[in-house]
UniProtKB/TrEMBL annotation:
It is found in: Endoplasmic reticulum; Golgi apparatus, cis-Golgi network. The keyword Endoplasmic reticulum applies. One of its GO terms (cellular component) is endoplasmic reticulum. Residues 21-33 have a biased composition (Polar residues). One of its GO terms (biological process) is endoplasmic reticulum to Golgi vesicle-mediated transport. Residues 1-33 are annotated as: Disordered. This is Trafficking protein particle complex subunit. Its main location: endoplasmic reticulum. InterPro entries: NO_sig/Golgi_transp_ligand-bd, TRAPP-I_su5, TRAPP_component. Part of the multisubunit TRAPP (transport protein particle) complex.
Length: 241
């Protein structure tokens, strides 16, 4: 194969005459141009117009409580979260644990937001100190704040007095989740379990919360959030009777 001399324009090292031409004052005006006064005024006007738009941080929390998030956007975001987490875990138990941790971070913020809105309303904020009242709060108000609807059931375990169950027949978080057969025991509602656990911890009712698939022919996505309370909670409940 014959060797050809590279084109001068493709040469990495330029000649001294070319370098001096690029650095000369006469050529600098053609290579770099300053914005005109008219363009500067136009840019300032656009910035001023943009500053008049409503900022999300300026919206009052009480008036935005009815705002809804697009279901498709939420499904896409949660799907990406599950896929991102799945690539960084070693098994189903580890995946559910990571989803629980992510949900816990959301739950702390949900509780803070709910109390902030209560304090800003005309009603005086009420601190719940009884177990059933707190579980009802989670079953209704927390579910509505996160999913826009109340849960479908709240039950107490017959065998274990320290266990309660919140049942959601059609959890929004599971509607667009397709679990493969080798992951049949996976419950992506572990994310919801983390939210519940954070709320209970914030209300001084510590518990271990897990999610379990309890599907039936009528509700294929039926999920049970199992709440296992710590012993100190039951002891305090006995003293309050």
């Amino acid at each position: 194969m014959a060797y050809t001399q590279p084109h001068p324009r493709l040469s990495v090292v330029s000649t001294s005459s070319q370098s001096s031409d690029h650095l000369s004052p006469t050529n600098s005006s053609t290579r770099f141009s300053l914005p005109s006064a008219q363009s500067l005024h136009a840019a300032a006007a656009s910035i001023k117009a943009g500053s008049n738009r409503p900022n999300i941080y300026d919206r009052p929390l009480n008036k935005s409580r009815g705002a809804e998030v697009s279901g498709s956007a939420f499904a896409f975001l949660f799907s990406e979260i599950v896929q991102y987490t799945q690539k960084r875990v070693s098994g189903i138990n580890d995946l559910e644990r990571q989803l629980n941790t992510l949900g816990y971070r959301i739950g702390t913020r949900v509780l803070e937001l709910m109390f902030w809105r209560t304090e800003g309303s005309s009603k005086a904020p009420k601190r719940e100190i009884r177990l059933l009242s707190v579980l009802t709060l989670v079953h209704t108000q927390v579910w509505k704040a996160v999913f826009g609807k109340a849960a479908d059931g709240l039950e107490r375990s017959v065998e274990n007095p320290d266990e309660y169950m919140i049942i959601d027949n059609d959890p929004p978080i599971e509607r667009h989740i397709s679990v493969p057969k080798d992951f049949s025991s996976l419950s992506c509602s572990s994310f919801t379990a983390g939210i519940v656990e954070a709320v209970l911890d914030g209300l001084s009712f510590p518990a271990r919360v897990t999610a379990h698939n309890t599907a039936n022919p009528q509700f294929p996505n039926r999920t049970t959030i199992l709440i296992k309370l710590e012993k100190s909670v039951l002891e305090r409940e006995e003293l309050l009777k």
